[in-house]
Specification:
With about 150 residues, the chain is α+β, with helices and mostly antiparallel strands. A hairpin with a 2-residue loop joins strand 8 and strand 9. Helix 2 packs antiparallel against helix 3. The chain is elongated and about 50 Å long.
Length: about 150
């Protein structure tokens, strides 16, 4: 199981290799990539912040739940922090299992759980402003630290 929160670029290849298994007939890899627009606004870049040790603990719990729930061989979750430019990868989720259907279902479930449960905050920066958005605080789970609020 590969679990990491890092400021360094993250690799889909590394995640796929980490979950590879002779018993796996399917490896599903999801990349969350920084896009250039959101809600009709031109996005300049994003800034991610996290509580790394807590985030990794929760990511590991999600991966363990996914393994049990979907019969996975393995699961990898990598999340990037710091400033990310348009086109850079912020999240990689890789799952391996015996069949494709379970790999798609598990991958979607893991991505959604990461968004709901992991203490990672995203600041969207536009030409005319910025705002901390999404993440656990937007789902009523916890608030972003005061230093991150406008």
């Amino acid at each position: 199981m590969l679990i990491r929160v890092t400021e360094a670029p993250i690799s889909a290849d590394e995640a796929a290799q980490a979950v590879a298994s002779p018993a796996a007939g399917a490896i599903n890899v999801f990349l969350g990539v920084v896009r250039n627009t959101n809600l009709g606004r031109a996005v300049s870049h994003l800034v991610y912040d996290a509580y790394p040790s807590m985030a990794e603990k929760e990511m590991r719990a999600i991966a363990e739940e996914a393994k049990a729930r979907f019969g996975l061989e393995d699961c990898a979750i990598l999340h990037r922090t710091g400033r990310l430019e348009i086109g850079e990868t912020s999240l990689v989720v890789a799952v391996s299992c015996g069949h494709r259907r379970e790999s798609y279902e598990a991958g979607l479930w893991v991505v959604n759980e990461v968004k709901k449960r992991v203490p990672v905050w995203k600041k969207e920066v536009w030409e005319d402003g910025e705002e901390w958005i999404e993440g656990p605080e937007s789902l009523g789970m916890q608030q972003a630290p005061a230093s991150m609020q406008r």
